[in-house]
């Protein structure tokens, strides 16, 4: 599980739908939530989480995508299995893991040192824990 320390920078809500914006080490992230706790507020530090299987990767990305979170990163490690591969990438000082099929990793010719765009839907990001209230 990926764990990111972030600070809540904005909260937009209509009825019980919330779009929460975060900043983490110069990166901006967004989360969509239907059940945001009432005491959640701008300025709080939180641990965010996203499953490695929910992070898509793009190489040489161009064009517009609906993914709210498009994170430029560098591959620093890979574990290539028979069916699945784990891509370890670093964005600023934040390390993230993505699990993709080994066929995709080979087709994309992903190697250590490559620049990738990590793609995360806002609905796949969640607050794991509030660090300060």
TrEMBL record:
What organism, scientifically named, is this protein from? Answer: Halarcobacter ebronensis
Locate the Transport-associated OB type domain: which residues?
A: 67-126
Q: Name the SUPFAM superfamilies on file.
A: MOP-like
Pfam families for this protein: TOBE (PF03459)
Q: Which InterPro entries match?
A: Mo/tungstate-bd_C_term_dom, Transp-assoc_OB_typ1
Source domain of life: Bacteria
The beginning of the lineage is: Bacteria, Pseudomonadati, Campylobacterota, Epsilonproteobacteria, Campylobacterales
Under Gene3D superfamilies, the record lists:
2.40.50.100
Name it.
Answer: Transporter
């Amino acid at each position: 599980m990926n764990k990111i320390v972030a600070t809540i920078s904005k909260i937009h809500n209509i009825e019980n739908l919330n779009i929460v914006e975060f900043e983490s080490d110069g990166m901006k992230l967004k989360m969509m939530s239907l059940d945001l706790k009432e005491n959640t507020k701008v300025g709080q530090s939180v641990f965010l989480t996203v499953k490695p299987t929910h992070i898509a990767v793009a190489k040489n990305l161009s064009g517009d995508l609906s993914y709210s979170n498009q994170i430029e990163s560098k591959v620093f490690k890979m574990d290539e299995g028979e069916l699945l591969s784990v891509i370890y990438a670093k964005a600023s000082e934040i390390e993230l893991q993505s699990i993709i099929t080994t066929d995709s990793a080979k087709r994309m010719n992903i190697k250590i040192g490559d620049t990738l765009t990590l793609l995360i839907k806002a609905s796949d990001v969640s607050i794991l824990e509030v660090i300060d209230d």
